[in-house]
Amino acid sequence: MILNTAPAVAPKSSTAAAPAYRRARPTAAQTGFTLVELMIAVVVLGILAAIAIPSYTSYVNKSRAKSGSADLAALALNMENRYQLQLSYPVNAAGTVATTTMFPAWAPTQSAYFNYTLVSTATSYTLTATGKGSLASCVLTLNNSNTRTATNACGFTTW
């Protein structure tokens, strides 16, 4: 009779300690961010947004005002063209709205943000762009002697 001489191996119990490399693994309850970490991230994003949004809005408004000034310069070129052809400016009462019907060669790019008006006599003119909406206090003017003015609300005072 041959006897089994191999040592008896006890079955692993469920309470036996796991190897060290397995204990370092996070469980499902340990993954993700804590509420404090999430709230800190939200606060940081809020501070960045509070600084960035007003700066961006100011930049956009200044850009629109610069484009509005370019529209006035283009309108002035149309007025000067008429002067060269007729040796007088077209006569328009104060507050006359400048339209593409009056000046077919003029195509304002910022008409959604500015109202363009003019007053002119046979020898002089003054063109005005008055802002709308967020640019409501922005007023640009240009006259026949190329005097240009802008209010502080435009983001610049000379152009």
Question: What is this entry, summarized?
Answer:
The protein has helices at residues 20-23, 35-86; strands at 92-97, 114-120, 125-131, 139-143, 148-150.
Structure, described:
The structure is a single chain. With 159 residues, the chain is of the alpha+beta class. It has one domain (38-154): Glycoprotein, Type 4 Pilin (2-Layer Sandwich). The protein is 35% helix and 18% strand. The chain is built from two helices and five strands. It has helices at residues 20-23, 35-86; strands at residues 92-97, 114-120, 125-131, 139-143, 148-150. Strands 1-2-3-4-5 form a five-stranded antiparallel beta sheet, with helices on one face. The radius of gyration is 37 Å and the shape is rod-shaped. The chain starts with 19 loop residues before the first helix and ends in a 9-residue tail after the last strand. The chain crosses the membrane at residues 38-57. One of its GO terms (biological process) is type IV pilus assembly. Pfam families: ComP_DUS, N_methyl. Keywords: Membrane, Transmembrane, Transmembrane helix. InterPro entries: N_methyl_site, PilE-like, Pilin-like.
Topology, please?
Elements: H1 20-23, H2 35-86, E1 92-97, E2 114-120, E3 125-131, E4 139-143, E5 148-150
Antiparallel strand pairs: 1-2, 2-3, 3-4, 4-5
